[in-house]
Write a structure and sequence with these properties.
The complex is a heterodimer of chains A (about 100) and B (about 350). Chain A is an alpha+beta fold and about 100 residues long. Chain A has four helices and six strands; from the N terminus they run ββββαβααβα. The longest helix of chain A has 17 residues, at about 70-90. Chain B has helices spanning about 55-65, 85-90, 110-115, 130-140, 145-155, 175-185, 200-205, 205-210, 210-220, 275-280, 280-290, 295-300, 310-315, 340-345, and strands at about 1-5, 10-15, 20-25, 70-75, 95-100, 120-125, 160-165, 190-195, 230, 245-250. The chains are: A alpha+beta (about 100), B alpha/beta (about 350). Chains A and B meet through strand 2 of A and loops of B.
Amino acid sequence: MRYSPNDSFQKTPDIRVRELPEWGSLLVYTPAHPDIHYLDARSWLLFELCDGRTFAEVVDEFSQAVPDGTPRDDIHRAVTEAISTLEAKGIVTRTAAAQSAAA
Amino acid sequence: MSESHDTNGRERRKPILLQPIKSWLQVTATCNMRCRQCYGDCTAEPQPEEMTAAQLRQVIDNLADAGVVDLLVEGGEPLHRPDLLDILSYATRRMLVRLRTNGTLLDHATAHRLLQAGVRNVCIDFMGATPDTHDWHLQSAGAFEKALRGLRIAVASGFQTVGLMIMTKRNANELQQFVDLMAAEGVPRVGILRLYPLGRAKQHWGELALTLEEQMAALEQVSAPAGVHLMRSWHPRDGNCCWQAAGVDYQGRSVGCSYLREYVDFGNVLEKPFLETWNHPLYIRLRSRNVPDHCPECAQTQDSEGGCRSTAYAFTGNWDAPDPFCTTTNRGVNLAVLPERLLSEDA
């Protein structure tokens, strides 16, 4: 999966989130495809960043949360993998760059 | 987290939950069968105290507000309740719903309506791998064929299907046959469950219950075919699940685990928020998993100490006793004989 820097991401409507601060994690229930998904702290952070931000903005924001000196390619790869997983599970939805520009 | 120690004396941190994630909900105490191993005393017609659909919706909201996102719906026989689909549709808006059923009422039309209601997970109980054995437990000729038909419909309809069987004296020699049957039917998850001294099962204990030695001997003969996950809760996997257990019976009573239904009452959730019952002193004590004399191996594999609280209490009368269903902590308890105390409580 490759994302355009201008692809934008939103939380899927109608999902239910259950915070588990005592475990540092989040549970997400997706009624449209009935299942419960466990998000670790990193996925939880990326999920929270999916509030209409573009992919480039998510990468920029997420880079603030990783150790100094982490290669940009590694951050880019980690964000891509995590967001594509969230998208595949129906937890976040993507608006492709062309659609964003037209909107 | 709270602290404990593993088998090497190292500090082990026990997971805790501030509020429940999962719950059990008994939507009815009615049933189309009259099973010998029934954990209630189910009848064909509802008892006066059985919750209405409106009350069940209230309980579902109460549980969801408390944090529950995973709901196991049981009976009685849930599909025996005429308004079940409406109740399930209401619940699936906020929770993953899993349905436990005897399978006999699961036809194509019902399966379709369950899918429309947002249910994708079904657990079907068998009491034998053959018609004779299954029907003997359910006291109903033809029940096995109906349950098997229901299972096949569930699998063909795309439900994530689990096959369950409570081990008894009568079916212990059919465990492998049952696991193989489930594998052949395309069921990827199979559970062999212990018999609990609850409800009608207590009255039939003598003809149903095995000693622990007999149970372990039967379990040792069972292996899971490739692609099948086999669940068993005996040593070294005897977990103390109370720390994450929540449940409400058909009257609205908060009882934690379904297997505690006769031994505890944390309050009625029709009268108070669920979280008030969650903070009942005994509920807090059970969730703490402080069982000093526990099996270290089970504690390590299950991240919890002491094994099942229901059977520990049933056979010892002590909430902090270790579970006699574990070989390490059985201490000579004959599981084939019910303590007089349990029978006299029914009198």
